[in-house]
Design a protein that fits this description.
Length: 464
């Protein structure tokens, strides 16, 4: 890999023309010069978008950008990049944190309350058995949320940047390549080396990137046969696990029951997990076609690839493991010349609740919420900046606000929550849109996920 391939660059600034149509993004320094010269105004705070006052699309040459998507159960990575002839340069990175688990838990709680009402001696209500039929392609709310939030951000990116194509990871691993190595729909790359990457990606996801026997993480991991081949073990994926080099050499061809004779709990856990399904992978596989169809409905060219190819691409470019870098490496590519130094973390927070009362542990109303969400011109979730001139909380505080009718607000910043800020010191930056925003450095993320040469990779050892 060339020296420029590991170069981290500043995230770009999105640019709109005077009519609100997207232009090619620009460097932050150029955006500052445009704002200082009065040629542009701030259109949006986060992500930062400027609007030119003296230029339109007709007066400009627009090269366009592409978007890569790495869908996941808890997080989805989105990368905006430019490139040609198989080379890509990352320009902007977004990690979208879903709230599907919270939706699932709340629906489970609501179902429990509903079943409780059925068992009580209440007034008679005729049975409603005919309303349980669901149309074909129906998705549970927790799954539909993942598709809708991802599509919402794809739509936003197309409004802020001239997107010409979308690359999406359709599956985490290719089940056809796992089972028989057969080509799928004429794609012959799944044979040979790449088929092995499909198996490894599956095992890394299933076993949590740790050694099954000692729990070591961040070290090179080998493929290990739970029941060794020399004793009749098969090559099926359900017979494969991950083992560090020490455990792999110590176990060798020893039967797993004998190797873990003094650890019956660990033995039972390994045998059970070997046949257990992947819940997060199941959620992604359930929503992949709904996301694919929604992307095709946008009218943009959409290309799909598997997680095995993404991992193969990262191994060739030497990039570390992260959701946004996976999105940058989706599909066919030859090299990656740069990626953003910081990642915008977007958390789905919702837009509040319809409930106007807060119940206690027994279900009785404990207090009432105000009927209006707007107080002193602000509502909970707005992005604000407070400039407090004096006192214990003196300083500038920027973050999401939680409002009170008294006018004493709480502001959640990247350093924590500051309580009791008077509304007179607060200035609006951006209205609440159902998401919370934060940034983190890609460099710190790389320290948590070292490249394969530093440990943490998956090797093909243990083929006994």
């Amino acid at each position: 890999m060339s020296e420029g391939a590991n170069r981290e660059v500043h995230p770009v600034v999105f640019v709109l023309d005077r009519h609100g149509h997207p232009l090619d993004p620009c460097h932050p320094a150029r955006a500052r010069r445009l704002l200082a010269a009065g040629r542009a105004v701030v259109h949006r705070h986060t992500p930062f978008v400027i609007r030119l006052k003296d230029r339109s699309v007709a007066d400009s040459t627009v090269a366009g950008v592409q978007v890569g998507i790495d869908p996941g159960s808890r997080h989805t990575g989105l990368a905006v990049f430019t490139g040609h002839d198989g080379s890509r340069a990352g320009r902007y990175a977004i990690r979208l944190d879903h709230r599907g688990a919270l939706i699932r838990d709340r629906l489970t709680s609501r179902a429990a309350c509903r079943r409780g009402r059925w068992s009580r001696n209440l007034r008679y209500r005729s049975p409603r058995f005919l309303n349980r039929t669901k149309p074909q392609g129906w998705l549970a709310p927790s799954l539909r949320h993942r598709v809708e939030t991802t599509m919402s951000w794809v739509a936003r990116l197309t409004r802020w940047a001239p997107v010409t194509a979308v690359h999406v990871e359709k599956v985490s691993f290719d089940t056809h390549a796992l089972s028989a190595g057969r080509p799928l729909e004429g794609v012959d790359y799944q044979r040979g080396t790449l088929a092995g990457y499909e198996v490894r990606e599956y095992l890394l996801a299933k076993w949590g990137r740790t050694c099954a026997y000692c729990g070591a993480s961040g070290v090179p991991l080998n493929l290990d046969h739970i029941h060794s081949r020399s004793r009749g073990g098969s090559e099926r994926v359900s017979n494969l696990t991950l083992a560090c080099i020490g455990c792999n050499q110590t176990k060798n061809a020893t039967p797993v029951q004998e190797f873990l004779n003094d650890k019956p709990a660990l033995l039972a856990k390994i045998l059970k997990q070997a046949k257990a399904p992947l819940h997060d992978a199941a959620a992604v596989n359930t929503t992949r076609w709904a996301l694919w169809q929604a992307l095709e409905a946008t009218g943009l060219p959409v290309a799909g690839a598997s997680g095995g190819r993404t991992k193969w691409n990262r191994s060739r470019t030497g990039a570390p493991k992260s959701h946004t870098l996976d999105a940058l490496h989706v599909g066919e590519l030859e090299s990656v010349t740069a990626w953003p130094s910081t990642v915008l973390v977007v958390t789905a927070t919702g837009r509040g609740t319809y409930a106007r009362t807060v119940p206690d542990r027994y279900g009785f109303p404990r207090l009432a919420r105000p009927r209006s969400k707007l107080h002193h011109g602000f509502q909970t979730g707005d992005l604000v900046r407070a400039n407090v001139p004096a006192g214990k909380k003196a300083g500038v505080h920027t973050g999401r606000v939680a409002v009170r009718t008294t006018g004493s607000f709480n502001i959640t910043t990247r350093h924590g929550t500051v309580q009791g800020i008077g509304h007179r010191h607060v200035r609006m930056l951006q209205r609440a849109d159902g998401y919370g925003y934060a940034t983190h450095s890609e460099t710190r993320h790389r320290a948590a996920f070292p490249p394969p040469s530093e440990g943490g990779g998956l090797h093909a050892g243990g083929n006994r």
